[in-house]
């Protein structure tokens, strides 16, 4: 399966500090668009503060990727380092799962409808998934070690609150992003009232 490669632009905007947030934290709104200004959906955005504590955390969404209609659903999933991901089979046919990615190399044998298999992901990075029976099936798991991460919506926007003020690294990943490992990183300064626009042009 071939993907068109689009140069992407990352636009990072800060929102004013709300009274309900802890002192020294901010809300960050990130929008991802392509070179034509079209929003890019399902791009993974990670914000890693320089003062990251390394504490364990969980995301509010379920760590699960189903197999339905001969596709991985969702096609991309963001999970915390050390998470165990469930793979329920909702199809009438059997599926297997494999990955040769550096972050996780494994193979799950064939299993049938309404059955579930699980796999743990102890290392950060991108895990590309496939099915030995259905070559067109592709899925991606992005394993992160920061709680300030998520995927862009249909408007190309990812918003997160409670990000510590100060220096941080923003990492953008998308399977069609034309850069090494399909990701790009840049340094930013997060403040309680961040109004400056940060733009990164990618090759």
From TrEMBL:
InterPro entries linked: Cupredoxin
Highest taxon of source: Bacteria
Region forming the signal peptide: 1-22
Keyword Signal listed: yes
Gene3D superfamilies cross-referenced by the UniProt entry: Cupredoxins - blue copper proteins
Keywords: Signal
Protein name: Methylamine utilization protein
């Amino acid at each position: 399966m071939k993907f068109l490669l689009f140069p992407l632009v990352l636009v990072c905007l800060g929102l004013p500090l709300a009274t309900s947030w802890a002192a020294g934290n901010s809300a960050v709104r990130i929008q991802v668009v392509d070179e034509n200004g079209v929003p890019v959906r399902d791009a993974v955005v990670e914000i890693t503060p320089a003062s990251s504590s390394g504490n364990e955390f969980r995301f509010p969404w379920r760590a699960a990727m189903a197999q339905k209609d001969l596709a991985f659903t969702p096609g991309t999933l963001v999970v915390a380092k050390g998470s165990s991901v469930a793979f329920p089979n909702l199809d009438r046919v059997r599926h297997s799962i494999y990955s040769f990615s550096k972050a996780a190399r494994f193979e799950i044998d064939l299993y049938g409808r309404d059955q579930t298999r699980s796999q743990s992901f102890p290392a950060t990075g991108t895990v590309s998934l496939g099915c030995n029976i259905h070559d067109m099936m592709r899925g991606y798991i992005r394993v992160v070690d920061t709680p300030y991460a998520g995927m862009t919506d249909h408007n190309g926007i990812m918003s997160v609150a409670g990000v510590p003020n100060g220096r941080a690294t923003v990492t953008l990943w998308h399977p069609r992003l034309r850069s090494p490992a399909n990701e790009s990183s840049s340094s930013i300064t997060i403040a309680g009232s961040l109004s400056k626009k940060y733009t990164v042009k990618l090759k």
